[in-house]
Amino acid sequence: MSRFAILLVFVILSNYTFAQDWTDAEIKKANTAEKANYLSTEEKNIILYMNLIRLDGEKFYYTFLQDYIDTYNANVRKYRNYNELKITKNNSYYTSLLKNLKGVKNLSLFYPDAKLTAASRSHAMDLSRNNIDTHESSNGDNFSKRLSRYFPNKLMTENIDFGYSKSLDIVCHLLLDCGVPSLGHRYNILDQKYKFNIVGVNIQPHPSFNYCTVIDFVAQPTFYAGNQ
């Protein structure tokens, strides 16, 4: 990565209080989507943040996640049901996340893939166009059928986020997984069992939720640096 590229990433991350706790080397390593010109800056940073989690989960918990929670709580303070909406330190999803992130260190990273991103974009646009909020396409195809057209006979999964357009918000919302007892989104990001190593990411406007983001994960049988 060039000195300019490293500087550009830090300009993006320095909007957050705790960016200084991460080293140049960590940011450089996590920024696997740097050259993926088919991704927007926010889409690239979704991959960056997911990789930072995998590099050092506990540090992410005490840095970027805390910044997200502080900002979220400040934003929902204006609502009458603020006490129900706010994320407190005794929130069960918040406390269970720390348990999940302890020991998460130097896991394999996610790499962007152009073909998989095309699949993510197709579904995100379908969600937007038809005002739906499901892993099933408007024609009834589930995500495995959709992705198998691109990656037959591969392990795969999918995260979908609604309501956010900024990368840190999207990643932290999925990582906390509040209201999702299975914690499926969280476990996809922290995957070690299925060896997911390539991702497709797309953010689209959505008529009911303002925005939707589709993140698809596929496991290649051998190391794969992504189709960048």
Please render the helix and strand layout as text:
Blueprint: H1 3-13, H2 24-30, H3 41-55, H4 57-62, H5 64-76, H6 82-85, H7 92-101, E1 111-112, H8 114-130, H9 143-148, E2 155-162, H10 167-176, H11 184-189, E3 198-206, E4 210-219
Helix pairs in contact: 2-3, 3-10
Any overview of this molecule?
The protein has helices spanning 3-13, 24-30, 41-55, 57-62, 64-76, 82-85, 92-101, 114-130, 143-148, 167-176, 184-189, and strands spanning 111-112, 155-162, 198-206, 210-219. With 228 residues, the chain is of the alpha+beta class. Residues 1-8 and 14-18 have low confidence and may be disordered. A four-stranded mixed β-sheet has the order 1-3-4-2, with helices on both faces.
Number of helices: 11
The structural class is: alpha+beta
Percentage of residues assigned to helices: 40-55%
Computed CA radius of gyration, to the nearest angstrom:
17 Å
Secondary-structure element series:
HHHHHHHEHHEHHEE
Shape: globular
Low-confidence stretches: 1-8, 14-18
The beta-strand count equals: 4
Biggest sheet: strand arrangement: 1-3-4-2
Report the average pLDDT across residues: 90
Measured distance between first and last alpha carbons: 14 Å
Q: Kindly estimate the percentage of residues that lie in beta strands according to DSSP.
A: 5-15%
Biggest β-sheet description: 4 strands, mixed
